[in-house]
Amino acid sequence: MELPSAALNEKYEATFRTGRAMPTFSQPAGRGAEMSKRTVIIAGATGLVGRELLSGLLADPSVEHVHAVGRRAPAVVSPKLTAHAVDFAALPALPAADELYLALGTTIKVAGSQAAFRAVDHDANLAVAKAALASGAKRVGLVSAMGADAKSRVFYSRVKGELEQDLAALPFAGLVIARPSLLVGARAELGQPDRPGEEWGNRLNKLIGFLIPANYKPIMAADVAHALLETVPSVDGVRVLLSGAMRR
Asked: Does residue 212 contact residue 203 with C-beta atoms inside 8 Å?
């Protein structure tokens, strides 16, 4: 299944530009009693958006169990949470689950090379998706990036777009792709290096934010997580959430 980024942007930007209020978190839209007793897998729970996703999942009364897969365990302790230390290059079978959230990501600077970056942002995410699909997951939410395009000449954007395209080719019942702009959040608290682009983007937004289109303004990591948590449980087909639509 091919995922033409430009066409999807045009289709879904019109849908989400209306700025409709999201449904309340305690009652995800559209699934009623079917929402109870969900089991969820999350990859990247120790990252900026992943941490917010994990917090929301643990607070959701309709989520019975959360399996966090990663190289290290989250700092959170909860009776709902089971952490699985894994090697993404040799991923074991995953527990049975209803949904999957993919928030794995790095930078070329941190990874050390383009190949190492691709191994995380594309290969590891795709490996978890395939394993979750085999375990019974029906729906998946992905933290991608603004400008993701499998045909882009920019390596970063091309890798993000290729992952979107490869996920869309898998037989999930529903896929939500979040494409945030520059993220705002406390990376230092997670032991992550600050990203100058995000810092400058946030400063610029404070000065002349009224001139910046909504999809290009910096966005809180918590807003991205909230949008995915509200949309993934009831999605059918492929749905793209642009940055402006996710801002609260």
From this structure: no
